[in-house]
Design goal:
Non-ribosomal Peptide Synthetase Peptidyl Carrier Protein, Chain A, 3 domains, 13 helices, 52% helix
Length: 355
């Protein structure tokens, strides 16, 4: 058995369906009357001639607005969409009641219940669209939009976005604020990014909002161009960067010499000679085998690979350098690459025995 509330809702839905049929019938009747009047013969009067009607006014076909469920922030956009339909399709809404009936047919949820109840009560504001829209805003959007807009404008900041995006949000809030142009100009300036404010400080400040927006947009675009130019220059310099090695120390006994204009290593710019590749290969092999431990700050070799103690040096190399009285007895270092002849002290047998 249906409850009273269910029967009441069913009655409301039936009433709305009836309203929709009535609106459709009235619209069709008006169109039929217009076509009959245009087709009916006119009384010919020789002194007076009426201009013939060439074609009916073309009205665009628009999709209906989305249903309004009673959400506060959608109230004013919904009414605006309905008013656009009234403006572009005047023949479909010839009376105030037709406009109100169309709006009620687009309500849903609690808004639908409210609109149907007011229509059935035959409320006075259901005979004038402006009064009906004002009552709809009063019920479902009671908060004054001016306050929200004012708070939004005071807290709005550009941040990292572009000035164009900042202007779009600014104008959305400014439309409900009812502020004058000087006030909007000042609060727009306060919300700009600091680097744009610095640029504006060096120029004559615009006196109106539009001029301020245009100048800030030009400055923002120029700053973006400069950032891209700097990034491109950094990438270009990185691509041309070259790795260089220091020349061998003087008196090293190296058989390979380099002129002051030559560089030991250039990546991607020169091809190594066969002799240079062989020299580097032999040097790398020797380093991997003996693995010298080098203190680059003190310019000393502090140790060698573990197998060097029993094979190359007889015992680990370390400690203080030999005294001046120690007689230098060196092993045959002819097989050692010439780049390491300046380190021949490590092959001093007398030094090793002394230690």
């Amino acid at each position: 058995m249906e409850s009273d509330e269910q029967r009441w809702r069913c009655g409301i839905e039936n009433a709305i369906s009836g309203l929709e049929r009535n609106v459709h019938d009235m619209t069709q009747l008006i169109r039929d009357m217009s076509s009959v009047q245009a087709a009916a013969p006119t009384h010919v009067s020789p002194p007076v001639q009426f201009p013939s009607r060439t074609s009916p006014i073309h009205e665009p076909k628009l999709p209906p607005p989305e249903n309004f469920t009673g959400e506060a922030k959608q109230c004013r956009p919904f009414l605006t969409q309905c008013e656009i339909h009234f403006q572009l399709q005047p023949s479909s809404f010839p009376t105030e009641r037709a406009k109100i009936a169309y709006v009620i047919s687009l309500l849903s949820g609690r808004a639908k219940l409210w609109g149907t109840a007011e229509w059935q009560r035959d409320s006075l504001f259901c005979y004038n669209y402006k009064d009906f829209a004002a009552e709809l805003r009063r019920v479902f959007d009671p908060i004054a939009p001016e306050r929200d807009a004012a708070r939004g404008l005071f807290s709005l900041r550009q941040g990292r976005r572009s000035v164009t995006d900042y202007i779009i949000e600014f104008h959305t809030l400014a439309a409900d604020s009812h502020w004058n142009d000087p006030a909007l100009t000042d609060v727009f300036f306060q919300g700009l990014r600091e680097e744009i404010k610095d640029e504006l400080a060096t120029r004559e400040r615009p006196v109106d909002l539009r001029s301020m927006e245009d100048l800030a947009t030009r400055i923002d675009l120029r700053l973006s161009e400069r950032r891209r130019e700097r990034q491109g220059r950094i990438l270009s310099n990185s691509a041309n960067w070259q790795f260089k090695s220091f020349p061998p120390p003087q008196g090293s006994g190296s058989s390979t010499t380099m002129s002051s204009s030559e560089e030991a290593m250039q990546i991607g710019r020169t091809k190594l000679s066969k002799e240079e590749r062989e020299r580097r290969r032999r040097g790398a092999t020797w380093l991997r085998k003996h693995n010298p431990h080098i203190n680059w700050v003190r310019r000393e070799i502090t140790g060698w690979a573990g197998q060097c103690s029993s094979t190359c040096l007889q015992e680990a190399v370390g400690g203080q350098p030999p005294s001046e009285s120690t007689t230098g007895v060196f092993s045959d270092i002819s097989k050692v690459p010439p780049e390491y002849h300046d380190l021949k002290e490590v092959f001093n047998k007398a030094w090793g025995e002394e230690r």
